[in-house]
Amino acid sequence: MFKGTQKVLLAACIAAGFSALASADYSTYDDAQALMDEMVAEHKFDRAELQVLFKSADKKQSILDAIARPAEKRLEWKDYRKIFVTESRTKKGVDFWAKHKETLARAEKELGVPAEVIVAIIGVETRYGQHAGSYRVIDALSTLAFDYPKRAKFFRKELKQFLLLTHEQKQDPLTLKGSYAGAMGYGQFMPSSFRAYAIDFDGDGIADIWNNPVDAIGSVANYFKAHHWNYGDPVVTRTRVTASYDAELLSTNLKPTVSYGQLASSGYTALIPIDDDTKVLPMRLEGVQGAEFWLGLHNFYVITRYNRSQMYSLAVHQLSQAIKVDADSVNATSAQKQY
């Protein structure tokens, strides 16, 4: 046990340790220096301003802890689903749809993405804009670009895109907030996705996914359009398997590569009609009642372009269907009352 002065000294050492961790001077890091060189040479940024920016960025251990344990890697489907496909999230989705009915209808018509899918993405990502992240984006991206070697290359690229984005949008890079990975706004776009897919959907001259749900809706729809969503096509289906099914055909990947005809002759039977030459993704997930077998189709793969996870894609799809059912019920009840 520590007593008196020993306790004081221990507390001071601990505080100093945490302070040093949080105030890592990224402006002195070799990788940060190299990035500043690029931004000055390629994009005419002011080096002194970049120096101040990276000196102001804080290293966050909580970010490193969070990215090391994403839900998609540590949970089974039965537990993952409980987080995102809930009565509360469904009800809030119906409310969000009702509030932005005209915008969602226009996005569906002009960009070819169902309203319920757009709503579900925003619901899974931020609970319809309520939880868009509390980390400064500059802290998140700097921490991961310079102190997370496993994916430093990816986050260094995103940090560069963030600097370009804030310059183009005339935003203060020290004030914008997002997730622990640096994703921003209603739909949680990474900076590269923002620059590639965010659109000004209300015509005010600014693509604002942070505070403008109209732009956020249009931007999510535009993302799916750019990744070739096929309007009207199914997303995923349950499949029955025989006792002698070929388990080696099951995949933990994301892209459908096996023809349904091959699966059908190997012990799998889809619960919806599928042409034999259609490429599918056979999956086995651990549900509440035990093993669940699914076949992901092209649109399932498109959802994984947003987050590279089978469980994420299935959760978005199931939430979208729950929202649509409830929204249709509300609309039918309202129509009956008017009649």
Structure explained in plain terms:
- By secondary structure, this protein is α+β, with helices and mostly antiparallel strands.
- The chain folds into three domains: 83 residues, Helicase, Ruva Protein, domain 3, CATH 1.10.8; 111 residues, Lysozyme (Orthogonal Bundle); 61 residues, no CATH class.
- The protein is 56% helix and 9% strand.
- The chain is built from 16 helices and seven strands.
- The strands form two sheets. It has a five-stranded antiparallel β-sheet. A two-stranded antiparallel sheet has the order 1-2.
- The protein is globular.
- The N and C termini lie far apart (77 Å).
- The N terminus is likely disordered.
CATH class of the largest domain: Mainly Alpha
What is the annotated CATH architecture of the largest domain? Orthogonal Bundle
% residues in beta strands:
5-15%
Tertiary shape: globular
Major β-sheet annotation: 5 strands, antiparallel
Order of helices and strands: HHHHHHHHHEHHEHHEEHEEEHH
The percentage helix is 55-70%
| Terminal Cα span | 77 Å
Number of domains: 3
Oligomer: single chain
User: Structural class of the secondary elements?
Assistant: alpha+beta
State the total count of DSSP E strands. 7
The CATH topology of the largest domain: Lysozyme
> What is the typical, i.e. mean, pLDDT?
91
**pLDDT < 50 stretches:** 1-21
Q: Specify the number of helices.
A: 16
Main sheet strand line-up: 4-6-7-3-5
**For the CA atoms, what is the radius of gyration?**
23 Å
